[in-house]
Write a structure and sequence with these properties.
Layout: H1 2-19, H2 28-44, H3 46-63, H4 68-105, H5 108-115, H6 119-129, H7 131-139, H8 145-152, H9 159-184, H10 196-223
Length: 225
């Protein structure tokens, strides 16, 4: 009965998200339109916004619904690089772990039927490289973020290992996204889109997977010696 109630509760939240078109509020356009008001309210109630942002981010990642990328940019715009990175790093990892646990104990059959064809690659990777395989997936996501969370729940990896490896593996990408968000928050016109700092942020974002791939290849090479 508890499992059934939990499934119904989660399903109702996901249905409400799409039925009420809440994704409209998790768009860069909406944030830009309300940016001045949001920043004013945040400055008036900083702790409330910190807690609220954290909980919303955990809910989005935990329910595996769209919006995490935009929320990461918004974190940079609202809280700056350091605080924004800390918030996103822990919120994304906690949310990912909740999705991981939900897949393992509640939605196993559904995840198996939906993404089961990808599970063999995950199992093979973990068998070969252990937790380093998860670290690789977090640096260079072959599968979408939420798919990794759900499929890892079907494997034998320990929850604590999933948590700390995910947090470490996602940290560099989080910093890049939050840094881009700190520049987006200062754009006042379309001309601002061509600012050298903003362009540099997105160039870094675009090239990060290639740099990560090189680092992983180097580490693998060292391990093979």
């Amino acid at each position: 009965m508890k499992k059934i109630l939990l499934v119904l509760f989660v399903a109702s939240l996901v249905v409400a998200y799409f039925a009420l078109d809440l994704g409209e509020y998790l768009s860069l356009e909406h944030f830009k339109a309300q940016q001045a008001e949001i920043l004013t309210a945040k400055d008036s109630h900083p702790q409330l916004y910190l807690i609220g942002f954290f909980l919303i981010y955990v809910a989005i990642t935990g329910l595996s619904i769209p919006g995490a990328a935009i929320m990461t940019l918004i974190a940079g715009a609202l809280f700056g690089l350091i605080i924004g990175t800390i918030l996103v790093s822990f919120a994304s990892t906690i949310g990912a772990t909740l999705a991981f646990l939900g897949s393992r104990y509640v939605f196993r059959d559904w995840v198996q039927s939906k993404f089961g064809e990808r599970l063999k690659a995950i199992d093979d990777g973990l068998t070969k490289d252990g937790a380093f395989y998860l670290f690789t997936l977090r640096l260079i996501p072959v599968f979408p973020f939420f798919v990794i969370n759900l499929l890892m729940g079907l494997t034998g990896i320990r929850t604590w290992t999933f948590f700390w490896v995910s947090q470490l593996g996602m940290l560099a990408g989080t910093i890049v996204y939050v840094n881009a968000g700190t520049q987006i928050s200062h754009i006042e016109s379309t001309a601002g889109l061509l600012s050298p700092t903003l362009i540099g942020s997105f160039v870094l974002l675009a090239f990060f997977p290639w740099v990560a791939k090189g680092v992983i290849a180097y580490v693998n090479g060292r391990r093979g010696k």
